[in-house]
Design a protein that fits this description.
two-stranded antiparallel ribbon
Length: 240
């Protein structure tokens, strides 16, 4: 039987529970009509959230993910202790996780696996494109900008300010990119080549953020490299 895709109904599935992990102060559990068990533990002071999933289709399996301020720290299969990617396990349940009645915990998750903080009055069809596949799977597709940038389309809002780790990674990426560009320019003395390299590096670094680091791309960094790349390409093309 497909889930009733009413946001408020998903919220009623979540119940307060006692944390089972040391250091976590809050705990919520939800059980779907099919028997899937979802759990969220949170330490809001540290910005830590632990997600846990026991899918009914995989008897005995239990998956856990620890997140700190929007960045995945650890993913593992609980019973074996093996670290594995869990995106495909958690994403089918992201609408249920997004219905958690704890705004601060959802903000700490920071859009990981598509789990977003949504207003309490959100409708099931207005802001989200919902697909129902079977009795144990619900898929939600946020609009493209929300999926690409993370929590919100407004990337300059207070909730979307970069963390220190994101700033550090951005500075390292920028230093590497400009160093590479400078090396190639002083080797070939070609503005057109320099422009191509900088522009390509900007797109590449954004892709690395999104695909491998599992977070929203740093749009300012991408635009910076695209801007310099366009300038040097235009300069080289018109002068030579």
């Amino acid at each position: 039987m497909p889930y009733n895709l009413e946001y408020e109904k998903f919220r009623t599935w979540w119940k307060r529970s006692r944390p089972s992990t040391q250091g976590f102060r809050k705990c919520y559990q939800a059980k779907t009509p099919s028997g899937d068990i979802l759990q969220i533990e949170a330490n809001l002071h540290e910005g830590l959230v632990k997600l846990q999933l026991e899918p009914v289709t995989e008897k005995g399996a239990c998956y856990s993910c620890t997140i700190k301020k929007g960045t995945i720290i650890r993913e593992r299969e609980v019973n074996t202790g093996v670290s594995i990617p869990l995106k495909k396990k958690f994403e089918p349940f992201k609408i249920i996780f997004s219905a958690l009645p704890d705004e601060e915990a959802l903000k700490c998750i920071g859009g990981v696996y598509g789990i977003l903080w949504l207003p309490h009055t959100v409708s099931s069809t207005k802001d989200l494109e919902v697909e129902t596949t079977n009795s144990s799977e619900v898929k939600v597709k946020p609009n493209f900008l929300k999926k690409f940038f993370g929590k919100s389309v407004n990337i300059f809002s207070k909730n979307n300010l970069p963390t220190w780790k994101e700033v550090k990674d951005g500075l390292q990426d920028s230093a590497l990119g400009f160093s590479l560009g400078g090396f190639l320019y002083y080797h070939f003395f070609d503005f057109v080549l320099l422009g191509w390299v900088l522009a390509f590096y900007g797109i590449l670094s954004g892709g690395i953020d999104w695909i491998f680091r599992k977070r929203r791309p740093q749009i300012l960094k991408v635009l910076l490299f695209l801007g310099f790349g366009s300038y040097f390409f235009y300069t080289g093309y018109t002068l030579y």
